[in-house]
Amino acid sequence: MLGRYVSDLEVGDELGPVTYVMSPFIVREYCHGAGETDEAFHSGLGSPTGRQLAPPTLVHIDKIRLLKHSCPEGPGPNARIHYEYSARHHRLIPVGEELVATGHVSRRYEKRGRTYLEIAVELRASNDGRLLVEYTDTAILSYEPSGGAE
């Protein structure tokens, strides 16, 4: 555990590792929630490997896993707003694969009255360390409306 809240995180803080197996349940529930209908993600039909695959955007859940593991009391006094992300996928992730997620806080900065937090995440295969996904997530931690409190 690093901090009480996500808003406590500072540049250089290391998140994880968190090890887990990509399960069919995780993939199906995520797909239902995100409105993903491609059979490659639901059953594996039509996938290049013939196996059920994790959709690329599922990487968001790895960030959430890392934050929950490192900051068990949640976002902090203010809700965090997902601002932007960038993901680079190196390999397909089949259901049943054991994965290791790690991350670190790469930037924390202020801009126009907002506090931003950038987290870099890597997802690797646990059996051989192959890099599967690189992910950078930027969130707004706080926002002070212009004009101050009334």
What descriptive keywords fit this protein?
single chain, 150 residues, alpha+beta, Thiol Ester Dehydrase, Chain A, five-stranded antiparallel sheet, 5 strands, 37% strand
Secondary-structure map:
Blueprint: E1 14-21, H1 24-34, H2 39-42, H3 59-70, E2 81-89, E3 98-111, E4 114-125, E5 131-143
Antiparallel strand pairs: 1-3, 2-5, 3-4, 4-5
Please characterize this protein's 3D structure.
With 150 residues, this protein is an alpha+beta fold. 18% of the residues lie in helices and 37% in strands. The chain contains 3 helices and 5 strands. A 5-stranded antiparallel sheet has the order 1-3-4-5-2, covered by helices on one side. A hairpin with a 5-residue loop joins strand 4 and strand 5 (131-143). The longest helix has 12 residues, at 59-70.
The CATH first-level class comes to Alpha Beta
**Please, what is the oligomeric state?**
single chain
Alpha plus pi helix count: 3
**Element order: H for helix, E for strand:** EHHHEEEE
Brief synopsis:
The protein has helices spanning 24-34, 39-42, 59-70; strands at 14-21, 81-89, 98-111, 114-125, 131-143. By secondary structure, the chain is α+β, with helices and mostly antiparallel strands.
